[in-house]
Write a structure and sequence with these properties.
single chain, about 190 residues, mainly beta, five-stranded antiparallel beta sheet, 13 strands, elongated
């Protein structure tokens, strides 16, 4: 959908270039193991093994993968900043699943920034929120819960009113750029 981009610096060296169609599925597959070993001996797939367990994960055709831009990504503006701790993210995603809520919003009102899971199309839907910062602005930066596919950890989050956000990990060399929904709003007054 071209609405999520991740950048990471890996400690390990990978002996070949390959394409993964569903990174979330691949990472979840790796999480089936405590200390997986990756074997790239075959050009079409990687073997993930540990002890008596073994998975074969096939590579995607590189032609179906959208490649990132060559130049470095910069946010057009930095309008709202807050820290999102892994426990807070876990609670928000769990609440979204429990209440079957499709939307997560960074909302600025009454001097605070809160993250709110809700159904924006249903005024009487259940919701769940966590205060993550302070603000003088009024805004509602909207995301789809399904687009918040990030590894556990603490993130410094910066949101631009130009419908782009950056989630930079404080734990590892990892940054996500996630697009906002077009119905987001920002009033800096």
């Amino acid at each position: 959908m071209k609405n999520i981009l991740a950048e990471a610096e890996l400690e390990e060296s990978i002996p070949q270039d390959f394409a993964i169609y569903d990174l979330n599925q691949f990472l979840n597959g790796l999480s089936l193991h405590q200390s997986p070993e990756l074997d790239f001996a075959n050009d079409g797939y990687v073997v993930i093994r540990e002890g008596k367990m073994r998975s074969k994960y096939f590579f995607a055709d590189p032609g179906v993968i959208t490649t990132p831009p060559e130049k470095e990504i910069a946010l057009p503006s930095e309008d709202v900043c807050f820290v999102l701790k892994t426990q807070e993210l876990d609670k928000l995603l769990k609440a979204a699943a429990v209440y079957q809520l499709p939307d997560i919003s960074a909302v600025g009102e009454n001097g605070v920034v809160k993250l709110l899971v809700r159904d924006k199309k249903n005024e009487t839907s259940n919701d769940f929120s966590i205060v993550v910062g302070e603000t003088e602005s009024t805004f509602s930066f909207n995301f789809k819960v399904e687009n918040i596919k990030i590894l556990p950890g603490t993130y410094e989050v910066v949101v631009s009113s130009k419908l782009l956000s950056r989630f930079k990990s404080t734990d590892r060399d990892l940054t996500y750029y996630i697009a906002l929904e077009p119905d987001s709003s920002f009033d800096n007054a």
